[in-house]
Specification:
By secondary structure, the protein is mainly alpha-helical. It has two domains: about 10-55, no CATH class; about 75-115, no CATH class. The chain is about 50% helix and about 10% strand. It has five helices and three strands, in the order H-E-E-H-E-H-H-H. It has a three-stranded antiparallel β-sheet with strand order 2-1-3. Strand 1 (about 25-30) and strand 2 form a beta hairpin. Helix 3 runs parallel beside helix 5 and helix 4 packs antiparallel against helix 5 (about 105-115). The chain starts with 8 loop residues before the first helix and ends in a 5-residue tail after the last helix. The relative contact order is 0.11.
């Protein structure tokens, strides 16, 4: 009966690097048998009483993936609109909203504020 291969943390780094790059994540969870997981609980279930290594992108020699800025809710947009008097910033917000979810309430808030600040439309 042959014994299963057990990988060290250093050996797992190379495998982790490939998984991190492939899936565009910042952290993977590795088990001593060389399996990689994106979710810690899955790794723990697989490992049983064995060790689970958390390997992040930096440790694996990769630049971390930058999380995109979270999208603002309509209420957050309405608040930001009330607090600004910069027409250029409002135009950018309107452009972002129109190119994104294009929510009627958000568009109305932005265009309404733009009209308040520049009633002549010039």
């Amino acid at each position: 009966m042959s014994k299963k291969k057990s990988y060290s943390r250093v050996e797992l780094m190379g495998i982790a690097r490939l998984v991190i790059e492939q899936y565009g994540v910042n952290i993977v969870y590795a088990t001593a048998d060389g399996q990689m997981f994106l979710m810690e609980n899955r790794a723990k279930l697989h490992a049983g009483k064995g060790v689970v290594y958390e390997i992040n992108a930096e440790e694996a020699g990769i630049s971390p993936v930058q999380d995109p800025e979270p999208e603002l809710t309509v209420r957050e947009i309405e608040k930001a609109v009330r607090e600004t008097s910069d027409l250029e910033a409002l135009a950018m917000m309107l452009n972002d909203e129109a190119g994104g979810k294009n929510r009627k309430t958000a568009v109305k808030a932005i265009t309404g504020r733009m009209q308040e600040l520049n009633p002549t439309g010039v």
